[in-house]
Design goal:
The complex is a heterodimer. The two termini of chain A are 13 Å apart. Chain A is an all-alpha fold. Chain A has a two-stranded parallel sheet. Helix content of chain A is 50%, strand content 3%. By secondary structure, chain B is mainly alpha-helical. Chain B is built from 14 helices and no strands. Classes of the chains: A mainly alpha, B mainly alpha. Chains A and B meet through helix 9 of A and helix 13 of B.
């Protein structure tokens, strides 16, 4: 491993623009973005046989919306994210739509991959953090090996 | 900077006694503001840093600091910072000399360019340097042809640290060179001193305190530099991972005490280095006074 960037976009740029490394392990959307940005003939996307489902949480915080009086717009935005229009846009930007109808609009873009979740397979974030990413955890051991 | 210049010309003013009336009014107020501000801005965060690691216990702190990865990062950071600062000494002196002693078209532009590493956001500097020195960048490709790896290696870190340290040396030396009395130099010449003697025995002792202080500042800045280095470093543990990045990594895994332990160690080492620099500086200042 020649470079360990501090973030996923940085790693994508190092791989694509600087031509460092043979393989880039990245988010699905980053891989599609790289192809869209630099040409589909420049890189090949390798789909793994199994993957981890990564879903950034979206939430409405009662305390905050009540203090700022923004409950209506916040609720509206939250609902909009699951509307057909937003789901289409999400798929257009290479994120997997939740809505099956939106997902079907991008055939071939999001192949069926068996997905595991952090909570089911890794015992939740607290445990996964302690096992894999804490000091001396699996991630550190890879470098020390 | 001017303080050093004047320190060479006349002995430092004796500190006025506490109760003795100062010529300048407002001493109690000025001292009060100085102490309060330094306390709030410098001392308070440092105190917090000094207190934080000990929740690991003395053994935990020791274990953190003697971890091979931490040791490697500290060695890399301090070693490369020292090398970069030392390289900046002759080059910064030469640039300051050129800017002060010669009049040529574009001198003012060059003079302004020296400050660029100060003014540029460090991330911009890092990305620009990486683009230049990456294997497919113009300079990186040139170096790669002769088999030298620049970006994503310790050499890349060295380049970034040299870049950010340069203005410290130039800006420390420049005013002293400007104030340097040419008559002293001419007198040495009439007494038959060779150019090398004039430089080594007449100029250098006068410039030395400013030069040492510039090198010290460049070193201190380089040790703590984060923004420009992470883009060009490669950040691979044991190879190209700087200590500030390791601190950030520890924060990301919520190991605040471990991060503070490394931070405290860095502060102590840097402090020791700066004390040594200032000791060297005062030795040369005494010797350099005509």
């Amino acid at each position: 491993m020649p470079v360990l960037d501090s973030g996923s976009r940085g790693a994508t740029l190092t791989f694509t623009q600087r031509g460092i490394g043979d393989v880039l392990v990245c988010w699905e959307n980053e891989a599609h973005l790289a192809l869209a940005e630099f040409g589909a003939d420049k890189f090949e996307i390798v789909t793994p046989p199994i993957s981890i489902l990564a879903e950034p949480p979206v939430a409405l915080l009662d305390k905050v919306v009540d203090r700022k009086g923004t409950r209506t717009v916040a609720q509206g935005y939250l609902n909009f994210l699951y509307s057909p229009l937003a789901q289409d846009l999400i798929g257009k930007n290479y994120y997997r739509p939740r809505n099956p109808r939106s997902l079907a609009k991008y055939p071939g873009r999001f192949p069926q991959i068996p997905m595991v979740t952090i909570s089911d397979t890794f015992g939740g974030w607290a445990k996964a953090q302690a096992t894999h990413f804490a000091d001396g955890g699996v991630f550190d051991q890879i470098h020390k090996a | 900077m001017t303080a050093q210049a004047s320190a060479i010309e006349r002995p430092p003013a004796r500190l006025k006694g506490w109760r003795e009336r100062s010529v300048l009014p407002g001493f109690p107020l000025a001292l009060g503001v100085t102490l309060a501000w330094l306390g709030a801005i410098v001392l308070l965060p440092l105190t917090a840093l000094a207190l934080r690691p000990w929740e690991l216990g003395p053994q935990g702190v020791w274990a953190t600091l003697t971890d091979p990865e931490v040791l490697a990062a500290l060695q890399l950071s301090f070693g490369l910072s020292a090398l970069a600062a030392l390289l900046n000494a002759p080059l910064g002196l030469l640039i300051a000399w050129t800017l002060v002693r010669y009049e040529f078209p574009g001198r003012r532009v060059l003079d302004a360019l020296v400050d660029l590493p100060f003014a540029l956001p460090t991330a911009v500097a890092g990305i620009a340097l990486t683009a230049l020195y990456a294997p497919n960048g113009p300079l990186g490709a040139l170096a790669a042809r002769v088999g030298i790896k620049t970006a994503y290696s310790p050499l890349g870190i060295f380049i970034a640290l040299t870049f950010i340290g340069l203005p410290f040396v130039v800006r420390q030396v420049q005013p002293v060179l400007m104030e340097f009395d040419r008559e002293v130099e001419e007198a040495a010449q009439t007494l038959g001193a060779t150019p090398a003697q004039r430089f080594l025995s007449v100029m250098l002792p006068a410039i030395a305190p400013a030069l040492i202080s510039g090198v010290g500042l460049a070193f201190a800045r380089a040790v703590g530099e984060y923004g420009s280095v992470i883009f060009i470093a490669g950040n691979v543990p044991f190879k190209s991972e700087i200590a500030p990045l390791l601190i950030v990594s520890k924060l990301e895994v919520f190991n605040y005490a471990g991060a503070a332990a490394i931070g405290l160690a860095m502060v102590l080492i840097s402090f020791g280095a700066l004390v040594a620099v200032s000791a060297a500086q005062s030795v040369f200042a005494r010797r350099g006074r005509p």
